[in-house]
Amino acid sequence: MKPISKWLQISFLNLLLVSVLGFILRYKIAFSLPIVDQKNVLHSHSHFAFNGWVSQTLMLLLIYYLSSQLREQIWARYKWFVYANLITAYGMMVAFFLQGYAFYSISFSTLSIIVSVLFAISFWRDLNRISGKSVSHLWFRSALIFSVFSALGPFSLAYLMAIKQADQNLYLASVYFFLHFQYNGWFFFAGMGLLTNQLQTDPYSSKKLYYAFYLFCAACIPAYFLSILWMPLAGQIYYLLITAVLAQLIGWSLTVGVIIKNSKLLSEKWPKAGRVLLILSAIAFTIKLILQSGSIHPQLSQLTYGFRPIIIGYLHLVLLGVTTIFIIGYIISLKLIMLSKKVIVGVSIFVAGVIINEVLLLIQGVAALNYSVIPHIQILLFGAAIILVVGLGILFAGSLERRVK
Fold it and tell me: What would you measure as the largest C-alpha separation in the chain, in angstroms?
């Protein structure tokens, strides 16, 4: 078994734990669980999802890429980054669950940022050792930059708390800064780097992928303002946002065109289950871009950001529908785990749970806009959480099965 296969088993366990924390949140909302604090569990759930699942797994996949390109045994050197990130992730999960924002949780959060910076430096140096130019390297480098850049959000938040600044707008702006450059920076650019590495089959494809990269890279920073349109912004910002949204739409169209052009080759190289998951991730990302485009309207943005179900639905669309399904699809496509019947069943149940969860959140959000209440919606969302846990439990069990070769 390859080193990455063993580490991916831990990643799938972490994803299962993320779903269990989500299950606890949904149970407390639908019924009653006075022994746990809702905010503490929410912080534990979100921080562990980011560090224990997404960042941990992206690190593994990037290390695997380096290993395949350099033809060296680099796992012995990089395993310390993976161990360190894993320790900080578990530390945050436990500390936030027990005490919320306090000494231990903040300490583990700070350590996780230090680990991500050190990983970025080491990976950047090793990337320079790979001969030949590749557009995937541009995606990787930008992903690392945005990962480090996103840390300004938590640091500004800590500064506001230290000076006892109670401005709610500044507080939310700091939170959304971190979320934006994690979701749309580190997560997205790292994923696109992994994907484009599989798509550079000819000069035409490479050229289109270069254009797509520059469009997305140019749009990433100004697109942050889409997250804070409820704040008073200068009128010129809206023209910049329109340009950023158009750049992303064009960049995505170019990428989809390359995928379609190489569809026959990909169908021969990737198993059907992996292709289906990557298509679902692409559909979710397209929906995300459409929703993002609509949010340019300031009144619509202020309206939607005022309703929690809409925010939660959007964040889960990106984290589950786009990022998580992509990562699982990529892992399966590269055959980094054995594609057993149990894995396929687990993934299928999980995807069904994601779709059901998103549909229910959409219904709840639309009803909230009309100040209506959907009967038993919290129980239905709790049911969706159960489906997610069951699916990921089966997926984790399937990942433990040994590879044939």
Answer: 60
Specify whether the CB–CB gap between 138 and 82 falls below 8 A.
no
Look up tokens 């959060």; give the residue: 109
Q: What is the pLDDT of residue 405?
A: 35
Q: Report how far apart, in Å, the C-alpha atoms of 358 and of each of 19, 98, 310, 325, 338 are.
A: 15, 29, 10, 14, 29
How far is Cα 7 from Cα 3, in angstroms, rounded to an integer? 7
Supply the pLDDT for residue 58: 97
Give the whole-angstrom CA distance, residue 249 versus residue 184: 14
DSSP 225: G
- Secondary structure letter of residue 227 according to DSSP: G
DSSP string, 253-287: HHHHHHHHHTHHHHHHHS-HHHHHHHHHHHHHHHH
CB-based contact 56:89 (threshold 8 Å):
yes
pLDDT band at residue 74 under the 50/70/90 scheme: confident
Nearest to 4 by CA among 397, 334, 345, 275: 334
DSSP class of residue 185 equals I
User: d(Cα 40, Cα 25) in Å, to the nearest integer?
Assistant: 10
Can you give the pLDDT at residue 287?
93
User: Which token pair is 402?
Assistant: 């040994």
Q: Give residue 113's Cα distance to chain centre.
A: 17
Q: Which residues contact 81 (CB under 8 A, 6 or more apart)?
A: 59, 115, 118, 119, 122
Give me the amino acid identity at 85. Answer: N
CA–CA separation, 238 and 147 (whole Å): 26
Helix segments in 295-340, DSSP class H:
298-304, 308-316, 325-333
- Distance, CA of 66 to CA of 64 (rounded, Å): 5
Contact indicator for 299, 29 with CB cutoff of 8 Å: no
Per-residue pLDDT tens over the stretch 370-402: 778 888 899 999 999 999 999 999 999 999 986
pTM (global) more than 0.90:
yes
Q: With DSSP H G I counted as helix, E B as strand and the rest as coil, what are the percentages for the chain, rounded to 5?
A: 85, 0, 15
Residues making up the chain, counted from first to last: 405
